């Protein structure tokens, strides 16, 4: 083992996460307010937890079908039909996954051959590029801009299409920007997908967290269900991140291919999480609405707060992130985040962690109590004043 | 507009300015709505939920079931009013079921509560009988868990 590389080239090619080192700094400090989180600050609603506990008491501790419990797949089919008018066969077109993360990996591996290209907008969730690469593909980023509220332009996508382009990766509402796509914009993207015969992997884990706008499900656009792998989850809407439960919905051939990988690598999602997810879909709606209303209030406070301390922030309409510009401080995103943590005791995520074009921004999560948001804004205000160039 | 009152019900100390930001309703409108609500008793009063046990001044509270004889024309309202005028009666509700009024009675000692029930409440004309249940422990008050509220255990930085 001396001369050769222990680690595969595939893995070596993936650059290490830029935010790891913040863990160490954080661990050495006390009284830090973290806006660096990526999950709700609510605990899973009690009735959902209770049904998970009950399932354990009832002895549901075994494997399920590789596809997941049929009862859950039926609930998901009903949900997608009721909400977006989509028709999926719960027997063959829905796969229960260990969070959207697994769904993303399965989707990439199911459709990408070595050398295939995946076009994806940035700044975007950190897993898109590595998952494409691990599948042997090449990720081709399309920058998005604050002037356009970080919506991806269909023209910009089309310019990057080559004969090797196989798939298009979408992640709206967006982590990290909070941007959403409107129906008209998505339709243009759909036209591009149609023209160039692309598979569309649509990560819609934040679909329920939109404010004053309607979420358009990509698969529901005319002709798109055939070519879309819809990824949905329970983590964000129902505050179930730790349960690790999500799903993929697509046409039978694709789901079967994804299931093939899933059965050899994961086997099935944990049964109690599946049981809890059934309860979430059946009875969780009031809690979702309550949480969304609360996020909406915090969103307004955070965005107004940033703008008033001189960090220009566009109004995000989805997810639970604000993505203010820190360009006025003259610092890079990384320096800003590091110094803010050391001097101001507020943790944020540097924007370049989500792609090069995220430089000049930081991601701030407002799934944090109002008191903490207010205090963080005050600390950041002091920090910004002391660094004004 | 109801959003304004939901916010105040949760935290009465939120400023009109903050509420305006949270809701997107203009500040002047928020202020006017609160003024109006205070005037017409939509907002009855602002107060704190105090955990007196922590101050070593726990109160004795009893839930008293009261059975009444209804009166012609006024039903239970007249006798209910006679009861709720006593400051010792902290909350008074008309109930369905095996008794008519639920009265929450608070006092410094069990003696104090007992003497109110036996000397003031039970002898009232129209009161047929009472059953007194002393409160032993408060777990949750007005939607707030008093001790041991669960804490989130989140990873502080996550992409």
How would you describe the overall organization of this protein?
The complex is a heterodimer of chains A (389) and B (159). Chain A contains 13 helices and twelve strands. In chain A, strand 5 (165-170), helix 8 and strand 6 form a beta-alpha-beta unit. A seven-stranded mixed β-sheet of chain A has the order 2-8-7-6-5-3-4, with helices on both faces. A three-stranded antiparallel β-sheet of chain A has the order 9-12-11, with helices on one face. A two-stranded parallel ribbon of chain A has the order 1-10. Chain A has 389 residues and is an alpha/beta fold. Chain B starts with a helix and ends in a 14-residue tail after the last strand. In chain B, 31% of the residues lie in helices and 21% in strands. Chain B has two domains: 2-39; 58-136, Alpha-Beta Plaits (2-Layer Sandwich), CATH 3.30.70. With 159 residues, chain B is α+β, with helices and mostly antiparallel strands. Chain B is extended and about 65 Å long. Chain B has a four-stranded antiparallel β-sheet. Chain B has a two-stranded antiparallel ribbon with strand order 5-6. Chain B has helices spanning 2-10, 16-23, 27-39, 77-84, 110-121, and strands spanning 60-68, 89-94, 101-107, 127-134, 140-141, 144-145. The A-B interface holds A 17, 19, 22-23, 26, 32, 34, 36-39, 41, 43, 125-126, 175-176, 293, 297-298, 300-301, 304, 347, 349, 353-354, 370 and B 3, 7, 18, 21-24, 150, 152, 154-159.
Which structural class best describes the helix and strand composition of chain B?
Answer: alpha+beta
Indicate the multimeric state: heterodimer
For the largest sheet of chain B, list the strands in their spatial order.
Answer: 2-3-1-4
- Report the helical percentage of chain A: 40-55%
Which parts of chain A are unreliable, with pLDDT below 50 for 5 consecutive residues or more? none
| DSSP summary, beta strand count of chain B | 6
Largest interface: A-B, 28 and 15 residues
Strand order of the largest sheet of chain A: 2-8-7-6-5-3-4
* Rg value of chain B: 21 Å
By CATH reckoning, the class of the largest domain in chain A would read Alpha Beta
Q: Give the name of the CATH architecture of the largest domain in chain A.
A: 3-Layer(aba) Sandwich
Largest sheet of chain A: 7 strands, mixed
- The CATH topology assignment of the largest domain in chain B is Alpha-Beta Plaits
Record field, number of beta strands of chain A: 12
């Amino acid at each position: 083992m001396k001369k050769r590389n222990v680690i595969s080239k595939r893995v070596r090619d993936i650059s290490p996460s830029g935010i790891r080192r913040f863990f160490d700094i954080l661990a050495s400090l006390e009284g830090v307010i973290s806006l660096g989180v990526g999950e709700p600050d609510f605990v899973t609603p009690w009735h959902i937890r209770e049904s998970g506990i009950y399932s354990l008491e009832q002895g549901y501790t075994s494997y399920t079908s590789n596809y997941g419990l049929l009862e859950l797949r039926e609930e998901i089919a009903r949900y997608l039909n009721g909400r977006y008018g989509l028709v999926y066969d719960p027997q063959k077109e829905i796969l229960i996954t260990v969070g959207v993360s697994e769904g993303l990996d399965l989707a990439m591996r199911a459709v990408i051959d070595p050398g295939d290209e995946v076009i994806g907008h940035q700044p975007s969730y950190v897993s898109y590029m590595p998952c494409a690469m691990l599948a042997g593909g090449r990720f081709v980023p399309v920058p998005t801009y604050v002037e356009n509220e970080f919506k991806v332009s269909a023209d910009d996508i089309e310019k990057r299409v080559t004969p090797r382009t196989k798939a298009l990766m979408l992640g709206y509402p967006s982590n990290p920007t909070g941007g959403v796509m409107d129906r008209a914009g998505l339709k243009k993207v759909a036209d591009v997908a149609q023209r160039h015969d692309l598979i569309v992997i649509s990560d819609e884990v934040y679909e329920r967290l939109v404010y004053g706008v309607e979420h358009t499900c990509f698969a529901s656009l005319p002709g798109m269900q055939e070519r879309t792998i819809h990824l949905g989850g329970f983590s964000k809407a129902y505050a179930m991140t730790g349960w690790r439960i999500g799903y993929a919905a697509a046409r039978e051939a694709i789901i079967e291919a994804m299931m093939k990988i899933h059965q050899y690598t994961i086997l099935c999602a944990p049964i109690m999480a599946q049981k809890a997810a059934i309860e979430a879909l059946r009875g969780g709606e009031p809690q979702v609405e309550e949480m969304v209303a609360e996020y909406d209030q915090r969103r307004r406070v955070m965005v107004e707060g940033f703008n008033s301390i001189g960090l220009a922030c566009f109004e995000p309409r989805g997810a639970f992130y604000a993505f203010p510009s820190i360009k006025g401080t003259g610092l890079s995103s990384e320096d800003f985040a590091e110094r803010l943590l050391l001097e101001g005791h507020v943790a944020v995520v540097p924007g370049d962690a989500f792609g090069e074009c995220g430089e000049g921004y930081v991601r701030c999560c407002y799934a944090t109590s109002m008191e903490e948001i207010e205090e963080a804004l005050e600390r950041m205000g002091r920090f910004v004043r002391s660094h004004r160039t | 507009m109801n959003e304004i009152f939901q916010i105040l019900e949760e935290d009465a100390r939120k400023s009109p300015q903050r509420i305006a930001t949270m809701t997107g309703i203009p500040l002047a409108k928020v202020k006017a709505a609160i003024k109006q609500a205070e005037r017409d008793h939509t907002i009855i009063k602002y107060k704190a939920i105090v955990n007196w046990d922590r101050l070593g001044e726990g109160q004795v509270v009893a839930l008293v079931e009261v059975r009444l004889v209804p009166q012609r024309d006024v039903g239970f309202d007249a006798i209910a009013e006679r009861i709720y005028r006593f400051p010792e009666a902290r909350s008074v509700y008309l109930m369905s079921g095996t008794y008519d009024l639920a009265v929450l009675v608070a006092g410094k000692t069990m003696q104090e509560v007992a003497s109110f029930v036996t000397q003031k409440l039970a002898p009232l004309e129209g009161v047929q009988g009472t059953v007194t249940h002393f409160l032993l422990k408060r777990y949750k008050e007005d939607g707030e868990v008093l001790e041991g509220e669960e804490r989130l255990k989140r990873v502080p930085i996550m992409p």
